[in-house]
Write a structure and sequence with these properties.
With about 120 residues, the chain is mainly alpha-helical. It has one domain (about 5-120). It is built from seven helices and two strands; from the N terminus they run αββαααααα. It has helices spanning about 5-20, 30-40, 45-50, 55-60, 80-95, 95-110, 120, and strands at about 20, 25. Strands 1-2 form a two-stranded antiparallel sheet. Strand 1 (about 20) and strand 2 (about 25) form a beta hairpin.
Length: about 120
């Protein structure tokens, strides 16, 4: 696990290598934006949903969990068991499309950039 600056540097390096080719040429920033958009968590402040989504994105992204961290981020380093994935998906469906979309795009971007995203956690 790393601090925020190191995690961001690695994300940018990976995104620049992979990139996305769109109407304006290569767009590595699209991957970066997809991950960053999910780091904050759901707007409704649902801590259960945040622990099952944002905390996992943060861990896969490479942030460390500690009270002394400048990010103060909650991070879940343990892959979710099936029952928690089912619960996460139920909460995502109730939360509406906005955060669900951010989460799905972040998990997809992380996987495409070579981060270790458990297969069971990729699907919503």
């Amino acid at each position: 696990m790393t601090e925020l600056g190191d995690a961001l540097t690695l994300l940018i390096e990976r995104a620049e290598k992979v990139g996305i080719t769109g109407m304006y040429g290569r767009q590595p920033d699209k991957f970066i934006w997809q991950v960053l958009s999910a780091l904050r968590g759901p707007d409704d402040g649902d801590s259960n949903l945040k622990n099952l989504t944002t905390a996992r994105v943060r861990s896969i992204f490479g942030l460390e969990a500690c009270a002394n961290s400048p990010t103060g981020a909650i991070v879940n380093d343990i892959p979710l068991p099936h029952r928690q994935i089912v619960r996460r998906n139920e909460l995502l469906k109730k939360s509406g499309w906005h955060f669900k979309s951010h989460f799905e795009q972040a998990m997809s971007a992380l996987q495409r950039l070579g981060y270790d995203v458990p297969e069971a956690e990729r699907r919503v």
